[in-house]
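Running this now, will post back.
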Amino acid sequence: MYHAIIAEVKNKVGWITLSREEKRNAISPTMMNELLDAFRKYDDDANIAVVVLTGAGDKVFCSGADIGESIASGASFVERHEEQRKFAELFKIIRGLKKPLIGRINGHAMGGGLGLASACDIVIAAEDCKFGTPEVNVGLFPYIIMATLLRVTSAPKRLLEMMLTGERVDAPEARQLGLVNHVVPRDQLDAKVDEIARKIAKKSPAALRLGRRAFYTMRDMEYEKALEYLSSMLAINTMAEDVAEGIASFMEKREPLWKGK
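Update: finished.
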């Protein structure tokens, strides 16, 4: 049982909902520990094909770290530092997932919330959502999430401007910046998430696992090294049992029976 998140599985989709609506779904130490646990469990569950991350309510997806609660806890500097390092650990776990991760952005995504959204493979946002890094307004800077934001944005200088000024951008601009895949009317958000989740859930788990990992691994490689790595990954992929099943099902004009092997 979790206290700060809701975890449920529906039709091979593992849902994780940030559930502190009264606190703008801010990430408390409890929520952080529960997120780490839920992602690990979902990643090891063979019955889950896709994971969806969202927030409770319809106003805020996530407002970032609950700094106030951390300070009020009376924890020492070292204890707070160790708690903050878990945020970096969370991003590492998300990057290493075996399953694709969809971000259902139902409300504003600020600070660490923007980082969480950007860490998702596919981000679907309601058109009235806002995105920003307001940490500078309280004398902080969005250090940890920069690693993710800089790797997904198509406009690094615009991103830097947002971090320096604390400016918020709307969903259409977030899409232009590469932070969001799809912007839809709020009443179409669930339908779009369901559409993409169902498409992914029909694919080979083995191909998704190998391909997703290859994408993030080769992204930071030099071009020639990336080609060598991807050649090896192609060879590995062709050895998977799902490839033989995929070809057989295509020839026999039937739905494939994936084994994820």
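The chain has a mean pLDDT of 94. More later if anyone needs it.
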